[in-house]
Amino acid sequence: MLRWSINLFRIFGIQLAVHVSFLLLIAYFGYEGWREEGVIGAGWSVLLVLAFFTCVVLHELGHSLTARRYGVHVPRILLMPIGGMAEFDRIPRQPRAEFLITIAGPAVNFALVLLLLPVIWHDLWSEEAVPLHGWENLLINLTAANAVMGTFNLLPVFPMDGGRIFRALLATKLDYLRATFWASIVGRGLALVFSGVAAFYFSNYLLAALFLFIFFAAENEYRHVRRVEEEAAYWAHWRAQVAFEQARRAENSDEPPAPPLIYHGPN
Ligand code: ZN
Fold first, then answer.
1. Residues known to be catalytic
2. What is the pLDDT of residues 6-38, one digit of tens each?
3. Helix orientation angle between 135-153 and 20-69, rounded to the nearest 10 degrees
4. CA-CA distance, 167 to 170, in Å (whole number)?
5. For the CA atoms of 26, 27, 28, 30, what is the dihedral angle to 10 degrees?
6. Number of other residues whose CB lies within 10 A of the CB of residue 186
7. Domain segments of the chain as ranges
């Protein structure tokens, strides 16, 4: 499903791509704006979506550029209607690195809020109503969106940013797999609670579905970490076996030692 995407351009050497469903989102907002105020409404509505997703890209760039400082390769940032996703070839296991990479995303949103606040300050306190379509309204919406994006992502629901920060904190005390286990248990529990609250209390089914998606993502990521650990343990066991066997043979015979074996496995 993630293959259904369109490459746009490269930014800092990272390919920016949009999922095809993103185009539907733009069409939907354009249509809603058009129903309210014709072409002008459609234009402002689409502009707001594009400005919002520019902030999503900046959030992902915060993660990506920090990750690159730790040697992580970031081939692509993909935009979907539910948000952005930076693709990393690996996630560093040092808690400090994971913490900094993760916090960099929401930090970009809060920096944008601080940048935009002085611009909209006058409109916030003005007695006059801000016109529905115009720069003032767009910037007010964008400031609010960044405040929400930064805060929402800090919820400790693994694998959202807050959950990753929680795992990084746990990993300073526990081993990586245990830390992931507890972060994913807490994340799954909270994802279910938030999903229920969104559906039954706010009747926001899109948000409820998003939390269900996060519930399964938490489970997937824990399983992935567990599999990587098991494979590493398996290959470490075999390397030890082979080394032991070669040492034993070398001791017991006058034959020249066998050439070293090359094993195909994760290193
Ligand atoms: Zn993030």
1. 60
2. 888 888 988 888 888 888 888 888 888 888 778
3. 60
4. 5
5. 80
6. 18
7. 1-154, 155-251
